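Researcher: Quick test of sequence recovery. Tokens follow.
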């Protein structure tokens, strides 16, 4: 190992956008202490895995990854490997048993202590920092983001809902909103740095409540969109109970707020929603969708849905399919249920849908949703959409990839455009996941 290698780190981020945002905080904390980002994990003196615990297969992925880097540690004894984020917070000290290669554990509220943890780990200890700190919003730390086009801005952390299937209350603790003024100042920095899109994030973003002056999410979104009038503004994830007419009107009125709402439904059956402790019926969910569609013309909607939750009968599954058919979401994240120890469901309900049946139901959901997405995307052929170019397309440097205001992925001929450009694209072809086209020449 060279003298400098010990001061370099590489972060591998798993899971949601909150973890991506946290990796930007971790980077800032370590850089303040003189650490620098390594080009690759092979050249790093410290490897940090920022982990996700939300579903069983998320944990499996990290175990596979650990297996792989265990060999690197055998070759380089001075390599330090830290597990950060939701798995250590959820499984606590037991996480150390996942692999002998793990040197320290850091929960989501403990990132200010990372330099100390690294030092202690180098001294031979296996330190852990897993305390919740409901005051921690990482105020005062300027995140070091990847990319230059789209910026994630967290507005709250944690979650006070008690959805029966969900680990988030255990991994991220009680809900706390960032002060309004600090969100606005982060937005100002992001705009000054030239970002073209801002995504406000929180586990339950629309229950935002400014701890200082009490502003709600509608007021925050309005203020952010005015502070960054040339920048696209998105937000995620919303809970149906916190969708208000006021919020929907602001999305409709402010030209730079994207007309797309991700609104997880989880199940199409009121009985299952009750058992999930979601706090609303399916009729109430449909009313929110109707409200959104009546106020925001051309809005696109996406959702999350779980197949095979505890006690789900065939008729509940049919209700989920019926919901997808009637709402016609643009896209959906679709999962089969996996028990997470410690959650309300694990403690009080029976995981009684057998795995094969869960997978069958999930497949029906996926097939139906894919055909709906394909249909909706086909209808876009011949239209012109505005795309914010984000990257080169994976297939060819002659094409760029970007998103519409409705969050649809578009691949188009590059011509003279660069990532960061807003391009009017004529759509010529579509699959269920991507639109294809070329810049419009008028
Ligand atoms: N099993 C399956 N899916 C889950 N999700 C959360 N917890 C579980 C679980 N135990 C899904 C929900 C949530 C998304 C982030 O992950 O749909 O909205
Ligand atoms: Fe996964 Fe939830 Fe943690 Fe995000 S907050 S990384 S979804 S467990």
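Model:
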């Amino acid at each position: 190992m060279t003298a400098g290698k010990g001061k370099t780190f590489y972060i591998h981020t798993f899971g949601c956008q909150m973890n991506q945002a946290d990796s930007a905080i971790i980077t800032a904390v370590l850089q303040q202490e003189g650490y620098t980002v390594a080009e690759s994990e092979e050249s790093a003196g410290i490897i940090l895995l920022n982990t996700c615990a939300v579903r069983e297969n998320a944990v499996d992925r990290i175990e596979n990854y650990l297996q792989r880097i265990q060999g690197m540690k055998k070759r380089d004894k001075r390599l330090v490997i830290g597990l950060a984020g939701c798995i250590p917070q959820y499984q606590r000290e037991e996480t150390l048993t996942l692999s002998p290669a793990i040197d320290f554990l850091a929960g989501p509220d403990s990132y200010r202590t990372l330099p100390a943890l690294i030092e202690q780990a180098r001294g031979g200890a296996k330190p852990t920092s897993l305390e919740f700190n409901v005051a921690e919003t990482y105020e005062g730390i300027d995140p070091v983001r990847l990319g230059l086009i789209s910026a994630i801005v967290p507005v709250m952390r944690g979650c006070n809902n008690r959805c029966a299937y969900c680990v988030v209350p255990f991994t991220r603790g009680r809900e706390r909103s960032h002060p309004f003024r600090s969100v606005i100042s982060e937005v100002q920095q992001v705009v000054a740095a030239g970002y073209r899109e801002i995504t406000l994030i929180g586990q339950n973003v629309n229950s935002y409540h400014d701890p200082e002056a009490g502003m709600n999410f509608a007021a925050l979104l309005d203020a952010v969109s005015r502070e960054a009038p040339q920048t696209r503004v998105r937000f995620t994830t919303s809970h149906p109970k916190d969708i208000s007419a006021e919020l929907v009107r602001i999305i409709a009125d402010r030209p730079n707020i994207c007309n797309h709402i991700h609104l997880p439904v989880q199940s199409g059956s009121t009985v299952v929603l009750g058992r999930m402790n979601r706090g609303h019926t399916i009729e109430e969910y449909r009313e929110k969708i109707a409200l959104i569609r009546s106020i925001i013309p051309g809005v696109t909607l996406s959702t999350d849905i779980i197949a095979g939750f505890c006690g789900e009968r065939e008729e509940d599954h049919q209700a989920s399919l019926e919901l997808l058919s009637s709402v016609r979401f643009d896209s959906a994240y679709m999962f089969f249920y996996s028990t997470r120890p410690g959650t309300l469901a694990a403690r009080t309900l029976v995981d009684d849908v057998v795995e094969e049946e869960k997978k069958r139901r999930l497949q029906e959901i996926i097939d139906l949703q894919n055909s709906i997405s394909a249909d909706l995307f086909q209808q876009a052929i011949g239209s012109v959409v505005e795309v914010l170019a984000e990257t080169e397309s994976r297939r060819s440097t002659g094409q760029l990839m970007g998103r519409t205001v409705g969050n649809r992925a578009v691949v188009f001929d590059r011509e003279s455009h660069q990532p960061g450009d807003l391009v009017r694209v004529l759509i010529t072809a579509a699959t269920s996941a991507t639109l294809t086209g070329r810049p419009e020449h008028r």
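The CA atoms of residues 271 and 367 lie 24 Å apart.
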